């Protein structure tokens, strides 16, 4: 077991405070305690009073209510220091019903959004921004860039999602990288789902020694479950040349030698990653598995390797979400200094933790990455 902790932490090499990442325990109201990335165990229920603020809540605007937006509304509305000031949408969808029932104001982010009588329009996007302290932009690819001028005009800080260009925001964030910069940044972009999964795996591998190269092949879901009509039902489509994921990762981890390829498959339950990593020194299979099992937001499971297993892990989640990157134990192989593995990524929820990490940082509520991540993981366990 000593080999699991013998390697120098990736965060330590970047100067991040990660000293108690694997020893700190949170106890939630349901009577369970967890460390990030670990299984829950039964324990005595203790309330953490330091999580409760007596100051007025920070007003969070959600722009876009798709796959990411509706999950963030669920969580943010339950965090004591935050309140959802409103949701701005460009079209009306059934996803708005819970918002209306809970009294969250609905705004129009475009001039041509027609509201039915049962959904009152609270105003335009500019009206929402005036009543907010932070924006979570959860719009589809490219729309965040179109709305950037509105955010800058309102002088409001914003968190973008990974569909936007890495150059759009002041800081790019993923899995702890960029956390300190995010505290004071006017805008932060959270990396995409596949890039997030790859970085978590790369960080885990870096605990085994110096990672010389990573080569990964991504088999991507054609679409999200709620957009299945936009998929390619009878085709596997290749993207030629290097995919954007490796390029994205090198923006925030420039000395990591990683190259990625990608294709689209006619599935909508998750992405599949096939990864080959070369380390500086040989390791054993036991040490590799042990290390991967100890990393926050990485989950090693026994299974057949089916992407459907991603939806069976958290049966208590109302959407069957799994925000961890999932690695199949039988798929981990070690040949000398090379590690081969297969991983699954639930594209609908894997970036939720990173988005909340950044929100805690930008709001000033948490200034250390380990504390922000613990708070995030607790909120996800309770409300996602």
TrEMBL record:
- Which keywords label this protein? Oxidoreductase
State one Pfam family annotation. Answer: Gp_dh_C
Q: Which EC class does it fall in?
A: oxidoreductase
The UniProt GO MF terms for this protein read: glyceraldehyde-3-phosphate dehydrogenase [NAD(P)+] (phosphorylating) activity
InterPro entries attached here? GlycerAld_3-P_DH_cat, NAD(P)-bd_dom_sf
Q: Membrane: present as a keyword of the record?
A: no
The record, for SUPFAM superfamilies, names:
Glyceraldehyde-3-phosphate dehydrogenase-like, C-terminal domain (SSF55347), NAD(P)-binding Rossmann-fold domains (SSF51735)
Name the Enzyme Commission number(s) assigned to this protein: 1.2.1.59
Glyceraldehyde 3-phosphate dehydrogenase catalytic domain span? 198-341
Q: Which residues form a coiled coil?
A: none
User: What is the recorded name of this protein?
Assistant: NAD(P)-dependent glyceraldehyde 3-phosphate dehydrogenase archaeal
Task: Give the source species.
Answer: Brenneria goodwinii
């Amino acid at each position: 077991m000593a080999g699991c902790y013998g390697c120098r932490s990736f965060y330590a090499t970047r100067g991040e405070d990660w000293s108690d990442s694997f020893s700190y325990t949170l106890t939630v109201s349901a009577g369970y305690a967890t460390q990030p990335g670990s299984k829950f165990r039964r324990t005595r229920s203790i309330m953490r009073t330091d999580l409760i603020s007596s100051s007025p809540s920070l007003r969070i605007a959600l722009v876009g209510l798709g796959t990411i937006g509706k999950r963030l509304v669920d969580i943010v509305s339950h965090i004591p220091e935050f309140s959802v000031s409103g949701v701005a949408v460009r079209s009306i969808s059934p996803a708005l019903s819970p918002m209306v029932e809970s009294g969250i104001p609905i705004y129009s982010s475009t001039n041509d959004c027609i509201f039915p009588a049962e959904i009152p329009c609270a105003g335009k996007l500019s009206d929402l921004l005036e009543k907010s302290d932070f924006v979570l932009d959860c719009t589809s690819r490219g729309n965040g860039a179109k709305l950037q001028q509105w955010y800058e005009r309102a002088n409001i800080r914003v968190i973008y999602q990974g569909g936007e260009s890495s150059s759009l925001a002041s800081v790019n964030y993923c899995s702890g990288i960029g956390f300190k910069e995010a505290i004071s940044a006017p805008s932060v972009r959270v990396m995409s789902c596949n890039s997030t999964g790859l970085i978590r795996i790369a960080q885990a591998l870096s605990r085994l020694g110096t990672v010389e190269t990573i080569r990964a092949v991504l088999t991507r879901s054609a679409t999200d479950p709620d957009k299945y009509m936009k998929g390619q039902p009878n085709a596997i489509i290749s993207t030629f040349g290097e995919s954007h994921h490796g390029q994205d990762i090198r923006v925030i981890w420039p000395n990591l030698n990683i190259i990625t390829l990608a294709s689209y498959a006619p599935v909508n339950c998750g992405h599949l990653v096939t990864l080959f990593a070369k380390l500086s020194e040989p390791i054993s299979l036991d040490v590799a598995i042990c290390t991967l099992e100890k990393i926050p937001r990485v989950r090693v499971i026994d299974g057949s390797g089916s992407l459907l297993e991603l939806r069976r892990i958290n049966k208590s989640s109302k959407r069957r979400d799994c925000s961890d990157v999932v690695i199949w134990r039988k798929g981990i192989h070690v040949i000398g200094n090379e590690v081969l593995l297969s991983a699954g990524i639930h594209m609908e929820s894997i970036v939720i933790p990173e988005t909340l990490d950044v929100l805690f940082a930008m709001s000033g509520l948490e200034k250390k990455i380990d504390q922000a991540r613990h708070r995030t993981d607790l909120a996800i366990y309770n409300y996602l």
